[in-house]
Amino acid sequence: MKVALVGNQNAGKTTLFNSLTGMNQVVGNWPGVTIERKEGTIKGTDITIVDLPGIYSMSPYTSEEEVSRNFVLEEKPDLIINIIDSTSLERSLYLTTQLLELNCNVIIAMNMIDIMEAKGVKIDVAKLSAELNTTIVSISALKKLGIDELISKIKNNDIIVNTHQKIYSPDVEQALKFIADYHKDHKLSRFELVKVFERDIAFQVLDDDNIRRYISEVEAKEGMDSEQIIANQRYNYIGKVRQAAVKATKPAVSMTDRIDRIVLNKWLAIPIFVVIMALVYLFSVGFIGGLTSDLIDGFFNGMTSFTIFGNTIPLKFIGLGPWMAQKILYAGGSAWAASLVESGIVTGVGAVLTFVPQLLALFFSLALLETTGYMSRISFFFDRIFKKIGLSGKSLIPFIVGAGCSVSGIMSARTIETEQEKKMTIILTPFVPCSAKLPLIALFSSAFFGDSAWLVTLSLYLFSIVMIILGALILKKIFHTPEATTYISELPDYHAPSARYVGRIVGDRTGDFIKRAGSIIFICSLIIWFLASFTYRMDYVDGVNYFIKDSLLANIGNGLAWFFYPMLGGHWSWEASVSAIQGLIAKEQVISSMNVIAGLSDLSANATSIFDTAAFSFFTPITAYAYVTFNLFSIPCVSAVSAMRSELHSRKDFIIAIVFEVVVAWVLSSFIGFIGWAVL
Amino acid sequence: MKENHLPPDELTKKIDCDNLSQDRFMRGRHQRRGLKSHHHRFGHSLRPGQEGHLSDLRRGQKCVVLNFHNDNKALRRRLLDMGITKGVEIEIKKMAPLGDPVDIYLRGYELCLRRADMHGIDIKVIK
User: Fold this and answer.
1) Beta strands of A199-323 (E only): which ranges?
2) Chain A partners of B83 at a C-beta cutoff of 8 Å?
3) Residues of A with CB under 8 A from a CB of B
4) What is the pTM of this model?
5) At how many degrees (to 10) do helices A289-301 and A320-330 cross?
6) Where are the domains of chain B?
7) Which chain A residues contact residue B32 at CB under 8 A?
8) Full DSSP string of A302-344
9) Which residues on chain B are in Cβ contact (under 8 Å) with A88?
10) Using alpha carbons only, what angle is made at residue A86 by residues A83 and A89, rounded to the nearest 5 degrees?
């Protein structure tokens, strides 16, 4: 048995899906979190349940909405769970009236009734069920109330059979009957009849002169076109249902409205936004980073002291890498085996793991933005600016999600209505520094800008905003297809983030990062160590007969260094070049590679930072900024590239995207590097 | 009916100016003057009983929808789906800090629309 979960955007479908299946899909408090269908099995049964993107009607408007409609129409589920957001009852029931026209049973899950009651609106579920002649279960997806009742109704098929109530005016019902009789042998469903009546293009084949004439007569009688007639009468019917089942006391000004008065205030909105974003980075990069990065780095590579809140505390620790190397040497292992462990694996993986606490803090802050409802406000007040540069206010959601991971950012662009706005958003999303770029930013800014590191970090984020705006203006010129654009959205009620979901989101994302460190970064570190430790004749680079400049890696890097020459302020560095290229695999691999190379290039080293080693001592604050700039704006990692490819649906646009990003990154960073060259 | 694709401010301008070159000039200046004038343009608005476009209303005003004049079929369909049908009551609830988009209240729920899209909806003010 297959059950489909259908409802408006942000009605709580995925939350319900998680409760029904015990699964762990991502939820958020903005319209359009789910962009693909997801399947699961209802707990304790063998019933398959499919979570679908939110839709407002069976006439889809955006690509992700099409997924839902096609599933319901073509794959014919055995049962539809129609989840209804009680806080927008009438609009939810509009979709219900359409679902009830399909040849499929429907069970309604009334979500968020408790919120409505708190607002002083009482919904009589029994009455509503009688009016709609449909089974209704009252639930709270978030608090997991009513889930068992819902499951038992589904399992026992304890559901009112869908009998297709006649909800339209006699004239329209007559017209539907006329169409049905006209196409007797087709045995059209009620849904299809209505679609023909609405003159829906998808049902044009069933159209014909006689039918058209009949429809025109009804239209003339009602004084509006058939599409409006149907929408009007659906809502009239819903209005009647509502009157019978809903009792509202005079609603007070809600908490959400009170918060919005401040957050959406003409003068305060943008300062509040800037402060919130600054706090996110001050907290994660500045505070947490300053607290933890020395300690963790010390744990892997050894330390003699660490600094906390400006106080230097002596703490001697040999470090995991050196300790393991010692053990290997004591046990009679060869020098290169010790080096493999210390300079390859521990350095490479450790370089990335150093940033886990900062990422935890970043993911936590982003999860708060996503689950409280603030995200939709940002999109709401930026729409006016974004419209001007050819984007939509909704582009802001991919951008903010992209601060976590470009892949999910790119995917969430699907909710954007207009094709060109969507395309541009997809191409520009990688400009937002994703969490994997954070280590790179944090490393360089703390090394070169000390206490003002968080400020530099923030400046890079502001820089990326500027680049998104400029990039949008350029792309607008490149694509140049002026079209009418629209923005239809909602401001969901604020609610306190659920600790469970925030924990889940933070846990998942941090887990992914650590997993990558243990897999991709681990393997890459081995490869980099190998390439840096052997010459092409397979002689071991021992620092006596052979030096790292003879290694395979140096040879590869020298082949690439011309490309990076300008941005490094006229410095030929195979080390930095070969590291930057590895950003294609994963952005955090850049610093992992730099650490491995630094460790190997200065075998004697007592260097406290990679920028004290021979390999990277050439970096000045300006070239450091240029190098980070390149890594920020160039092509994202492979996963993001393939997400771009599949979301753009066009090879030409994809090539434009890639070329655009490389050119922007190179020109910008070379320009900054050139300033360094000219000034110094 | 090509004008309907234009944002409302330009549309009014088109009607105001009979000289095309002057129109171009004005439009450039108008855009350069930026957001404030836009705001102002919608500021002096309609009194109860008057008819106009949904985009003409101020925060807190209420109206009844009379008709649609909109070429964008997909958008029209969407607005119908969202419950903006003839006779429905709409209240202007919130405005984005820059004056656009606008959050409206209808049928017991709220919806955000751009002014340009609201322009295609004819209304009669009731409050």
Assistant:
1) 246-248, 303-308, 311-317
2) 90-91, 94, 231, 235
3) 56-57, 59, 61, 87-91, 94, 224, 227-228, 231-232, 235, 242, 257, 260, 264-267, 269-270, 380-381, 383-385, 387, 393, 484, 486-491
4) 0.80
5) 10
6) 2-125
7) none
8) -EEEEEETTEEEEEEE--HHHHHHHHHHHTT--HHHHHIIIII
9) 107-110
10) 95
pLDDT value of residue A516: 85
Q: Which of A144, A119, A123 is nearest to A132 (CA)?
A: A123
Give the end-to-end CA distance of chain B in Å, rounded to a whole number.
Answer: 30
Tens-digit pLDDT profile for residues A564-599: 998 988 889 999 999 998 888 888 889 889 988 888
Which pLDDT tens digit goes with each residue over A529-558?
Answer: 899 888 888 888 877 788 888 889 999 999
Question: Nearest-CA residue of chain B relative to A492?
Answer: B110
| ipTM metric | 0.80
pLDDT of residue B19: 37
Q: Which domains does chain A have, with CATH numbers?
A: 2-155 (3.40.50.300), 170-248 (1.10.287)
Of the candidates A87, A90, A381, the beta carbon closest to that of B96 is on A381
Fold classification of B2-125 is SH3 type barrels. (2.30.30)
Residue A338 is which amino acid? A
A657 touches A640 (CB < 8 A) = no
Tens-place pLDDT, residues A492-515 = 888 888 888 888 888 888 898 899
Chain A residues closer than 8 Å to B96 by CB: 264, 269, 380-381, 383-384
A37 and A113 in contact (C-beta within 8 Å)? no
Query: If you search the block for the tokens 């025109």, which residue do you land on?
Result: A216
CB A100 within 8 A of CB A135: no
Cα A406 to the center of its chain, rounded Å: 7
Query: pLDDT tens digit string along A172-183?
Result: 999 999 999 888
- Contact, A369 vs A494, CB < 8 A? no
- Contact call for A383 and B68, based on CB within 8 A: no
Task: Using an 8 Å CB-CB cutoff, list residues of chain B that contact chain A.
Answer: 5, 35, 68, 72, 74-83, 85-88, 93-101, 103, 107-114, 117
- The CA distance from A663 to A563, in Å, is 12
Average pLDDT across chain A, whole number: 86
A225: left (phi over 0), alpha (psi -120 to 50) or beta: beta
